[in-house]
Batch of 2 targets.
Target 1
Amino acid sequence: MRKIVLSLLAVIISASAYAQLPVDSSAQNKNVILEEFTGMKCPYCPDGHRIANDIMDANPGDVFVINIHTGSFAQPGPGQPDYTTSYGSAIASQADIAGFPAGTVNRHLFSGMSQNSGTAMSRGDWQNASSQILSQSSYANVALEADIDLQTRQMVVDVQVYFTGTNAPSSVNLNVALNQNNVAGPQDGASNYNPDQVLPNGDYNHMHMLRHLITGQWGDVIDSTGQGVLIQRQYTYTIPADINNVPMELGDLEVIGFLSEGHQEIITGDKAAMSYTAPAGTDIVDLAVVPGMDKPGWCDYSMEPKVKVVNVGNEPVDTFNVGYTFNDTVSVQQEVTNTLAAGDTAVITFSPVNLPKGENKIEVNANVDSTAHLLEMANVNNTAEMSSIYTFDPNPFGSSLWEEFDSYQAYSEQVDNSVYMGESGHAFVLDPSGVDGLTKPLGGYGKSQSSFFFYFYNMPSGATAKLVYEKMDFSGNTNTKLRFDRAYAQYSNENDKLKVSASTDCGNTWTTIYEKSGSNLATAPPNSNSVFFPDPNQWASDTLDLSSLDGESDVILSFEGISDYGNAMYMDNLVVYDDNTVAIDENKNVDDISIYPNPAVSDVNVDLTLAENVNVKINILNSMGQKIETFSHGEMNAGNHNLKLNTTGLNAGLYYIQVITGDHSSVKQLSVIK
């Protein structure tokens, strides 16, 4: 057996940055242990990660970060990973956290910096607190080494503590924490506040994540603390394959040791020098991969897969496997026998693949699994996924658009003939069923249940969310228009924005056709008490002239919400129409409409309740929104009415019943069967 000290992921760190034995017996200043309380659902936590990393990078070997995923922001939803531990809640509880991200610096109580009455501080105070700790003398030094047997997964941690001062209490606690780096997964706010840690596939690269406390919740008690005393402890831990189904990658683990006075005040700490024991005759290597091709555009219908392989280890790799998986069904692999020296890069190109309409995914990979004399330890960087590739249908879906958002479940981000672009949870279809205790409808003017919701209330400032509609054909259109309903309230004076843009070259260039923000966008007074849920009278409508796009055969429309961290906006009843189609809006003159039977065979009943005396006309529209038949009923009195329509002349299929009262209209979907 042989023992090897590795530099992983092409980061060369000098041995002096790690605490190697024997421990220093000369008096030293304190080191910083920054415990950061975080969660993947916390939109501002990536900014905390960035600040903590900056403090650590500015003080190599003196500052160490432990990211503790805890609290409501860390609780996983369906299909999400669980990064919590059994230890985090107790540590967070004693810190007395008021908001996330929060952090403690050596669990010390700093005057004027506490979020509440405990040691938890907001991220803006971490730098100041760290500087204070680093200037203070320590009564003890800590050093530690860790070795992982790559066959048995057993880790042995040797720790030494040397007491240099006379002011140590009669007992202290020795804590040994196990962190993991390079954990790829979800994270709200990542692209806005820490884009350097966003991976090519859109996942976030979580660092310094606490996975386990080897010495238990509050550490191992040391009760001999006199000046000149040397304490030596050894801990053995068999690393499981995963914790909470999150894999424990051996090459990405780090060990932090620190002394605390009881459960609170941390005196100093350090990071272990890591070594790895491998079978004799085996070379430990480290290959990393990324997609080597540019991301295809919406109207690219083929792609040439390329895999960029980087040898980020210290040993040459003479044989490796490389390949890709496309849409979870097509898997292509090949063996490469050209030696890849340490630090070198190779790009492997494969035959083109066709991109079908919709969402496409490609994952690239490289490994040495079939090579007996090579052992890959850091498997986390063996695969990489390109962020979702969206391919539009080459054929336009129509010359008009009609979307009421009523056929989707609450929280759906996928809308027919469109692509959602933005972080999950920033924009989606919403109806009252998605809000506890809410009963009022959320559709335009209260006439329907659903609308498309931009959650500015929970979006970091500058974050965007887009609903992009695929190709429409305006080549035969005349005087094309776009109309939609909106409802929005500021939180106080924030300038959340709605921007509508059009492209005729598949998104390469855009023309802004509408832009409103802040008070100009608002349809209701500011609401700083809670999320804004509009009343029926808190809606407005906009009609935009798209006639400059008449004659274009490939028109793409984008509806983009840009957050200023204000309140919430709703969008409903998107209609694109021209002189040959009919505009739709929410009917303010009708209290209720129902149609039956549905599906219909030869006749359909339309029951409606009129709010006032008004002229009534009913159109039957085809699935493209084009008028094919009209029934005029003249002026009708306020109250309940039943109207019968003959549908014997209609072919089987999907139609719409448009009830026009005065200048307004309502629409119901109708199926006809034969």
Target 2
Amino acid sequence: MRDGFIRVAAATPKIKVADPAFNREQILGLMHQGAKQQVQIMVFPELCLTGYTCGDLFLQFPLIRKAKEELGRLVDDSRDLDMLVFVGLPWERNGKLYNVAAAICHGALLGIVPKKHLPNYSEFYEQRIFHPGNDDVVSVWDEFQEEWIPMGSRLVFRCENVPGLIVGAEICEDVWVPCPPSISHTMAGATVIVNCSASNETTGKDAYRRDLICGQSARLVCGYIYANAGEGESTQDLVFGGQNIIAENGTCLAESARFVNEMVIADMDLERLSSERRRMNTFPSYSQAAVEGFFPGQKEEDYLARGYTEMTFSLKETEEDELRRFIHKAPFVPCDEGERQKRCEEILSIQAMGLKKRLEHTGCGHGVVGLSGGLDSTLALLVTVRAFDQLGLPRNQIHCITMPCFGTTDRTYGNACKMARQVGAELKEIVIKAAVSLHFQDIGQDESVHDVTYENSQARERTQVLMDVANQVGGMVIGTGDMSELALGWATYNGDHMSMYGVNAGVPKTLVRHLVQYYADTCREEELAAVLKDVLDTPVSPELLPPEGGKIAQKTEDLVGPYELHDFFLYYVMRFGYMPSKIYRMAVRAFAGEYEGRTVKKWLEIFYRRFFTQQFKRSCLPDGPKVGSVSLSPRGDLRMPSDACMRIWIEDLEQI
């Protein structure tokens, strides 16, 4: 698939215990189903060719031989299927029996990965039958293909024509131990881990299992495909629920229902994984692991000779298909309401703690907030109130300054005044029309010309007023601008761009709205909640142009584009560095039915142009707290030159 996506599946066949021929037919049927849906990596449960619950029947020659025979048939059956498949079976070598995962692709048996950690506690007694797997890769003879096949734990499978696709395998208990094989697999370059498993059900085990798999994928920054045994296994003492899980860097992409045999499919994003590893300089390379003794006695040049063995395979490029992956249109905002409320409380606490420390350190007992009645200044005020409460400072030492001018409407002015009174802050009105008009006379600006000078003069006058009032009261100007505005450069340089501490600098516009909504929903003051809800219903505007019929004439999103789109772009540009064409594709999918492709492309191009040309404003930002995984601070997450060329990004966009 395009753009670094690879379609994967975890499937649970309905089996018969100790009937490899029947089981092969069920596995093959699922492989064909997967092929029709363009699956390119498919994982089946542990020992699924025989059934996990064969017990001492595993010691019988007929079962061992039949399992290997049916594997040979399955390898032949895979010849015309474009997928890498992992299937579990018992495998005998040198008089010992191993619990293995066989990797097959395009009619070839690529390798055998043995289980290293054999449980022999509670309901498990694998050491009675099986021998622990070997680390070092050895060659074993496959009489069906009549060739030597690599067998060992340190075996990975690299796709020759899909960049970044390297697959490692472990089996069931391997992931439950303190040092799973998947750790060394990923250190050796694996980006996807597969697990052929037979984990029985007990009360509450499903949640633990899900957390384990998702947690391992996060710890290793990898994709993880977990296929579990289900219906068909013996229920003499145990029940297997078939809980299949596909995870990616801590996120569960797909999960099957329990107690039914299902196949789950998802599209993994290999570029996302590569981006995360590239960004995390603490994620070790193989050479680091060797130096640190993880692979004793091995150096980087010994990788193929003495360390991991790589087997290569290739996959055909699939036709364009709809992504099997949920793409949230608001990546900064959790989907789940409970999680969203928890996140809002956490962010408000981070913002307030940041301001609290700055006030404490500077000895400031007064805060100055330019209150417009809009979303950003509302959030800044609410955060300031929290910080003052935590410091035990009286709220009347918060100075709310409302500064009406040419574009101010009665609605926003009224809300600013009500809000200041409701929180107990001091409210001061300073009309700046005369000051701005005099400034226009000084510089020869025609007041009837509503150009950028007309707009920015108001913003800079407001900032001057706030700074001077702060000097008067011995206070600190609290910045109101949010991260979305900083990304677009939608701020007047040395106007609203400037403050003494910017509490909203790490909060994107889509999240600002949820934070204010959360405050309105949880505060006990009904009148304050009513004001906050009206602020939420007010169009986003800098209110720098005269109103039309008493209503806001200048709507920000009509000028720079919808903030929900820009926040989507910002997240994927900053968090993963995706190609513009990939971000476009994902946005079209996420906003299907809301924006046409041409509209998405238009605003994406504007985003890139503004993001590159406005870096000089971000290079001299006031201090402010980082609250999420994306930040534009020039001292923290974004060391970007102010005069970087955007050519290669725009050229990619033009290919759409």
